[in-house]
Design brief:
alpha/beta; alpha-glucosidase; Oligo-1,6-glucosidase, domain 2; single chain; eight-stranded parallel sheet; binds 2-acetamido-2-deoxy-beta-D-glucopyranose; GH13_cat_dom
């Protein structure tokens, strides 16, 4: 009898963690072209990722999220998908993907995919059939007739359906000879926007989600979500309405900033699609026993973003909070950082899961934005705040932006400037250069004798993983030490308290009654300071260093009391405190029911074994 009961209990506990895993997940964003090249063609690939999965597991990563790996002609680094159900050849095959998934599962890590629903590539079969009005693809895209106009000399000419501008400059409308109409592309010309006002498109995209969920992926990060819908011409006498001018200084009509995007961004219909996808993902709670994560990307203001979480009647997604990217920089004070954290926690609807993003493939690297001196601090904050933490590949070792010449430039956003002098202001290539595995040729990223797809950053011999693994004091060891604490009850469930003791001292505590507390201390100043935390009444007095940043004099395992904590210049420290008071005797109150069942049964079975 004993064994079956025990197994049942274990199964229940596992199921619970499969349902809750996402609430505190440490997610690692992989940019596949730049992570690891396994076949020597200068471009990263799936087998390269699979080869490095054990590294990620050792580091404490719960899930990897891969930027697009779907078939694409690559006019926009894989965001122009031509077949949502196959793998881009240079990354490998579907068998390689299945193996990656399997190995990842074997290591206890989950795989999250990028979902790019705003558009397909123009070379997709869907688009091709839409240009010839072949059912059911006729209305898969946003098609419209041009408008007649007369120029200053009275000559008739045809102009695009509206004044809308693409993110990458110029009209958002492109004339297509075969169909004799214009199609909408909010991004590059090769990316026609899908028509979400078509039920067939809605169903098609749900089936794409199901295709990958059936394989066993653990969810999606949804790209460019706030541009799914445009104004409905039926509400504007059959025409697409012009957007009003923004009045932005220095903007010319071809610039995206020239217009106020009231008809192309953040339309309320977008939220319903997100809630509908949530329902699709929730089908898998029953069939696979796993909660599937959905993270949405939207560069919108806070109030609009918050709506992605869902409503009283519909569940939604986790909107990426980019406040660490947008609202914190090298000069931010402890007061400002505290304000940014508190603001998100305040506006987030209660019961929802926060998230902290320190970098991605679209932004300059953290070490450049926040300064090398703040790499440990920012990594630690993301990892000790409640909710999901997302690390972009390379931020754990403090990689910096690489230099990419005009000749080597790949990013369409930069190429479209046609400006060999100022292109770099628009380029996202510097933050996409290959990962620095070691100090060997091509930073260990590729064994190619030719060029890698983007050049490796010049500092790879000093800033690389192997070097950081070899020394006790490194961004990598600090990151790993902090990540290791994420499974503690305090970081999983503890109450959050943030304090700015001064302009340069930030203190974050996570305290849970009956458990050891966690205390993060950041000194942003260029001078050492000694702090007294006796004003934090609930924080136990005895502290032990569990992670010590590269600039800190206090070493790991040092013990001290909260009344006097010496913090070096530009140092980030993580402490474990003694047991926080106020809990009930056993602390059992804080355990989830399945875990409780497991403990009780385990105790029984141990007793039985020795009786
Ligand atoms: C690079 O590695 C791949 C895979 O091991 C191998 O097939 C290829 O020959 C190597 N290329 C060079 C130039 O060493
Ligand atoms: C998946 O991994 C398991 C071990 O974790 C192994 O036994 C199995 O053969 C693998 N399957 C595939 C298709 O690679
Ligand atoms: C534009 O002018 C052409 C030729 O004069 C005409 O056939 C067409 O219907 C006009 N289109 C619109 C939208 O008025
Ligand atoms: C209008 O005519 C003038 C004089 O012939 C010419 O210089 C100008 O380029 C024309 N404008 C357009 C838009 O064709
Ligand atoms: C797709 O768009 C690109 C420009 O981005 C163009 O060069 C190419 O010819 C287009 N292909 C098709 C099939 O329309
Ligand atoms: C737009 O038109 C649709 C029907 O075509 C209608 O349901 C909707 O309420 C209208 N929206 C606005 C903002 O007028
Ligand atoms: C939302 O999700 C939660 C947790 O998965 C579930 O308990 C709740 O019933 C869902 N609400 C709706 C409206 O579907
Ligand atoms: C860039 O390419 C052009 C044309 O191939 C060449 O003339 C120029 O020297 C190159 N510049 C650099 C910096 O490599
Ligand atoms: C700190 O203590 C842990 C466990 O007691 C031990 O494994 C580790 O080696 C110690 N680290 C240092 C830097 O002393
Ligand atoms: C927010 C944003 O622009 N996200 C993506 C939407 O699609 C474009 C073009 O495909 C990508 O480059 C963006 O990263
Ligand atoms: C990029 C982005 O969406 N940033 C928003 C994140 O949240 C802050 C508020 O905390 C907004 O101000 C940013 O615009």
């Amino acid at each position: 009898m004993r064994l079956p009961i025990l197994l049942l209990a274990v199964a229940t506990a596992a199921a619970a963690s499969d349902l809750d895993w996402w609430k505190t997940a440490l997610v690692y964003q992989i940019y596949p072209r730049s992570f690891k090249d396994s076949n020597g063609d200068g471009t990263g690939d799936l087998n390269g990722i699979t080869e490095k999965l054990p590294y990620l597991q050792e580091t404490g990563i719960d899930a990897i999220w891969m930027s697009p790996i779907y078939r694409s002609p690559n006019y926009d680094s894989g965001y122009d998908i031509t077949d949502y159900r196959s793998i881009q050849e240079e990354y490998g095959t579907m068998e390689d993907f299945d193996r990656l998934l399997n190995v990842s599962r074997g290591l206890g890590m989950r795989v999250v995919l990028d979902f790019v629903p705003n558009h397909t590539g123009n070379e997709s079969e869907w688009f091709s059939k839409s240009t010839t009005r072949t059912s059911p693809y006729t209305d898969y895209y946003v098609w419209a007739d041009g408008l007649n106009a007369t120029d200053e000399n009275g000559t008739l000419y045809e102009k695009p359906p509206s004044n809308w501008v693409s993110t990458f400059r110029g009209s958002a409308w492109q004339y297509h000879q075969v169909r004799g109409q214009y199609y909408l592309h909010q991004f590059v010309i090769g990316q026609p926007d899908l028509n979400y006002r078509s039920d067939v498109v809605q169903e098609e995209m749900k089936n794409v989600l199901r295709f990958w969920l059936d394989k066993g992926v653990s969810g999606f990060r949804v790209d460019a979500i706030n541009r799914l819908y445009e104004a409905d011409p039926r509400n504007f006498s059959g025409l697409y309405p012009d957007e009003p001018l923004s009045g932005a200084e220095g903007a010319v009509p071809d610039d995206y900033e020239y217009l106020q995007h009231i008809y192309t961004e953040n339309l309320f219909e977008t939220y319903d699609v997100v809630y509908d996808w949530r329902d699709v993902l929730d089908e898998y709670i029953t069939s696979q026993g796993e909660y599937k994560i959905m993270m949405t990307e939207a560069y919108a203001d806070l109030q609009l973003m918050i709506r992605y979480y869902g409503t009283k009647t519909r569940n939604g997604s986790i909107p990426f909070n980019f406040s660490f990217l947008g609202d914190i920089n090298k000069d931010s004070t402890a007061w400002e950082i505290k304000t940014v954290i508190d603001k998100w926690m305040t506006y987030m609807p209660s019961g929802n899961v926060a998230n902290w993003v320190n970098g991605n493939h679209d932004q300059s690297r953290m070490a450049n934005r926040q300064g090398v001196d703040r790499v440990d601090a920012m990594n630690m904050l993301a990892l000790i705040l409640p909710g999901v933490a997302i690390t972009y590949q390379g931020e754990e070792i403090g990689m910096t932006d690489g230099y990419v010449s005009w000749n080597d430039t790949q990013d369409p956003q930069a190429c479209n400037t046609n400006d060999p002098v100022n292109y770099y202001k628009k380029s996202r290539d510097p933050n996409r250069t290959p990962y620095h595995w070691d100090g060997s040729a091509n930073a260990g990223f590729s064994n190619t004798t030719g060029a890698t797809w983007l050049p490796v950053a010049s500092n790879y011999q000093t800033v690389n993983l192997a070097a950081q693994m070899a020394t006790q004091k490194s961004h990598y060891h600090f990151y790993k030490d902090v990540a290791a604490q994420r499974k503690t009850p305090a970081l999983q469930e503890g109450d959050l308290d943030t304090r700015a003791l001064s302009e340069s001292l930030l203190v974050v505590t996570r305290l849970l009654p009956g458990e050891a507390g966690m205390l993060g201390v950041v000194n942003l100043a260029a001078e050492a300071q000694t702090i007294d935390l006796t004003s934090l009444k609930i924080l136990p007095s005895d502290l032990e260093v569990v992670a010590s940043g590269v600039n800190c004099a206090l070493e790991k395992n040092a013990t001290l009391t909260k009344s006097s904590i010496p913090v070096s210049a530009h140092c980030a420290l993580l402490f474990r405190s003694g047991i926080v008071g106020g809990g009930n005797a056993a602390g059992a109150h804080y355990l989830s029911l399945p875990l409780l069942v497991l403990l009780v049964v385990a105790t029984y079975s141990i007793t039985a074994c020795f009786s």
